[in-house]
Amino acid sequence: MLKPFFVYQNKILIRINPEELVCLVAEKNYTKLFLTHKRYYLVRSTLTGILKKLPPEMFIKVHRAYAVSIFFMDKVDRDQLEIGGQSVPISRRYYTSVIEQLNIIE
């Protein structure tokens, strides 16, 4: 069990378990944290700042504006991956590092 983290929503701290975090999407100085059960929170922090506080072995940055949990990745293609039927882009810059961080059996 990983240590939970907290986010402010309407001046109240809400606990989030890293195991529930599916995807992070950056929007300028804000980041949307998408959780299981179609929930999300918008926080005023950059994607890079949030990733520094999360377990690096669990989350992979796949694009300038996207990071995903390896536990929710269904399919990985050269330019995109799939999470629960949703497509997430993989930039050419991050593709090699994404593949290196995955446990691949050939």
TrEMBL record:
Pfam families according to UniProt: LytTR
Superkingdom: Bacteria
Domain HTH LytTR-type: 6-104
GO-annotated molecular function: DNA binding; phosphorelay response regulator activity
PROSITE patterns the record matches: HTH_LYTTR
Name of the protein in question: LytTR family transcriptional regulator
Source organism of this protein record: Paraflavitalea soli
